[in-house]
Design a protein that fits this description.
The complex is a heterodimer. By secondary structure, chain A is an all-alpha fold. In chain A, 80% of the residues lie in helices and 0% in strands. The longest helix of chain A is centred in the middle third of the chain and has 28 residues. In chain B, 41% of the residues lie in helices and 17% in strands. Chain B has a seven-stranded mixed beta sheet with strand order 3-2-1-4-7-5-8. In chain B, strands 6-9 form a two-stranded parallel sheet. Chain B starts with 15 loop residues before the first strand and ends with a helix. The chains are: A mainly alpha, B alpha/beta.
């Protein structure tokens, strides 16, 4: 139950700050009410952004597939010379 | 005395490495991967432990032939009668491991043995307890995934990073090197199955404060045989996330 407590603690701290803002009315009341919604929306945006950026810069390695094919041929050649029957898979 | 040794490639420490490879119907792949391991680790003291779950395709016969070529002390066949799952396969292999370090990798060639020297070098340089391969950094990468697979993978990763703060970039990758005592400790506190198990291992290790380093690896999707990712895996993954959120 450790990590969930950390996250709950963080949420509690945020709620405390929010409650504080509600009480002290440092910022107009109407705005303060909307802050949690902003938080949720910005979290969602952050997630989407991270997925989007992650997709755009997704590292691919087409050359590795060709290299691997070469390695496989080399290995098969060796195995054949050693008389190991791996069958046609 | 070791200061005089100028070649960094020659592993200065005489550590022994045990490479555990779980197999199920990997007749061809196990032979290929064995050849590649011996090719890339020519000057390292290591043993390969094949944990075969009673493959009907004759995987064990191929391993026995490989033993004749490379020696029974280099390739250990430690089969089990039936398909019993990944987590227990590692436990089973670990019981027979005599190395100071244990490498865990897949037999299907998605983990290329050419990265093993890099894992070992990273460990020697940093003294890390765990070196884990990551596909998501410069120098790493994936081949053979369609857009949907990439999207799922990225989404899963962002979700896990946001909720768990694990401190490693690739949670579900399973190409890793562990100090043997660390693997024993971590594996005994893990209870999930399938590939959530891989995630649980690294998250628990991170929570226990073990020193974890990453090396970039490339991941070429299964060359022979079919990939095992289905729709229900997403549900499994989400359940795994919640489980880790509550228990670690």
């Amino acid at each position: 139950m450790k990590h969930i407590l950390k996250i709950l603690g963080l949420l509690a701290a945020l709620s405390a700050v929010w409650a504080g803002l509600l009480e002290t009315s440092l910022i107009p009341y109407n705005y303060v009410w909307l802050l949690p919604i902003y938080l949720i929306v910005s979290l969602g945006c952050y997630g989407l952004l991270m997925v989007g950026v992650g997709l755009m810069v997704f590292p691919t390695c087409p050359q590795e597939a060709t290299l691997l094919q070469k390695d496989i041929l080399e290995a098969k050649d060796f195995l054949m010379r050693k008389g190991i029957d791996v069958g046609a898979a | 005395m070791e200061v005089l040794d100028t070649k960094p490639e020659r592993t200065k420490s005489r550590s022994k490495y045990s490479i555990i490879i779980p197999t199920y119907n990997e007749r061809l792949n196990i032979a290929l991967v064995t050849y590649l391991i011996f090719k890339h680790l020519s000057d390292v003291d290591f043993e390969i432990i094949v944990v075969d779950d009673g493959s009907p395709d004759g995987t064990q016969d191929v391993v026995k032939q490989l033993q004749k070529v490379y020696g029974e002390d280099r390739i250990l066949l430690r089969p089990r009668p039936s398909k019993l799952g990944l987590g227990t396969a590692y436990r089973h292999g670990l019981k027979h491991a005599s190395g100071d370090f244990v490498v865990i990798m897949d037999a299907d060639l998605s983990h290329h043995p050419k990265y093993l020297p890099g894992f070992i070098r990273k460990q020697t340089e940093t003294g890390a307890s765990i070196v884990t391969g990551t596909r998501y950094v410069r120098g790493g990468g994936v081949h053979g995934w369609n857009l949907m697979r990439k999207l799922t993978s990225r989404g899963a990763n962002v979700l896990a990073q946001t909720l768990l703060w694990p401190g490693v970039s690739d949670l579900t990758g399973s190409f890793r090197l562990y100090r043997k005592s660390v693997l024993e400790d971590v594996i005994n506190s893990c209870f999930s199955k399938g590939y959530v198990f891989q995630m649980e291992m690294i998250v628990r290790a991170s929570r226990k404060g073990y020193h974890i380093e990453e090396v970039p690896i490339t991941f070429v999707d299964r060359v022979y045989g079919s990939s095992k990712l289905g729709g229900s895996e997403i549900v499994e993954y989400l359940k795994g996330l919640v489980y880790l959120l509550l228990t670690t």
